[in-house]
């Protein structure tokens, strides 16, 4: 997922500055691959979608290019979702299973706070979690898969790119949305 995200962000940044049909189709393709590789990709696609919509609304990119990105992404994920729906009754199984299949097991309950799997899901926990999964990734979190010590060690490098025309805002936005979704929605489910 991390490699696909890196490729997708490079394509997004290229699409924002250069545009074009080829970049639009490639961006749509990699957005779909993000979702199909792991459903955490939905969060990343949501964050990238906000940037894409912003660029379309501010006329940095055309509505036709937005349509190309969107249609390409949908056409790529649709066969998987249709197949999964016929197999399970839920196109995004096992996510939201109790919504699509009332009375069936809810594999990923939201809001169940289990501190044995990490820090508490509260505001204090949200701010200390990066420290803990950077110094103790295997003990409390799935940080070894999400970056571990690299996140805190390399974070200061981000400040080197701040400028009037910097692309760091897009990267920080996508990273921030993913972190918030990971902390509040996903982090309890990925550790069994």
How do the helices and strands line up, and which of them pair or pack?
Blueprint lengths: L1 H16 L3 H17 L3 H17 L5 H26 L8 H4 L22 H13 L1 H4 L2 H4 L2 H6 L13 H19 L6
Could you provide a short overview of the structure?
This protein is mainly α. Helices cover 66% and strands 0% of the residues. It has ten helices and no strands.
Explain this structure to me?
- It is built from ten helices and no strands.
- The longest helix is centred in the middle third of the chain and has 26 residues, at 63-88.
- It is flat.
- It has 192 residues and is mainly α.
- The mean pLDDT is 76.
Number of E-state strands = 0
Number of helices: 10
Classification by helices and strands:
mainly alpha
Percent of residues in β-strands: under 5%
What gross morphology would you assign?
flat
Outline the biggest β-sheet.
none
Alpha carbon gap, first and last residue: 19 Å
Mean pLDDT: 76
Radius of gyration, taken over Cα atoms and rounded to an integer in Å: 18 Å
Proportion of helical residues: 55-70%
Element order, helices and strands?
Answer: HHHHHHHHHH
The residue ranges in which pLDDT falls below 50 over 5 or more consecutive positions are none
């Amino acid at each position: 997922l991390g490699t696909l995200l890196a490729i997708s962000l490079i394509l997004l940044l290229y699409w924002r500055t250069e545009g074009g049909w080829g970049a639009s189709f490639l961006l749509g393709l990699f957005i779909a691959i993000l979702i199909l590789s792991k459903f955490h990709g939905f969060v990343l696609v949501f964050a990238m979608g906000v940037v894409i919509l912003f660029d379309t609304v501010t006329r940095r990119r055309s509505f036709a290019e937005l349509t190309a990105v969107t249609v390409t992404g949908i056409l790529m994920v649709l066969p998987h979702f249709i197949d999964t729906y016929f197999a399970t009754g839920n196109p995004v199984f096992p996510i939201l299973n109790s919504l699509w299949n009332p009375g069936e097991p809810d594999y990923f309950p939201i809001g169940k706070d289990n501190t044995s799997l990490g820090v508490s899901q509260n505001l204090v926990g949200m701010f200390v979690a990066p420290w803990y999964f950077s110094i103790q990734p295997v003990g409390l979190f799935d940080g070894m898969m999400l970056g571990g010590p690299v996140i805190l060690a390399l974070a200061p490098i981000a400040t080197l790119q701040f400028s009037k025309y910097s692309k760091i805002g897009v990267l920080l936005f996508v990273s921030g949305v993913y972190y918030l979704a990971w902390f509040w929605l996903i982090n309890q489910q990925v550790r069994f």
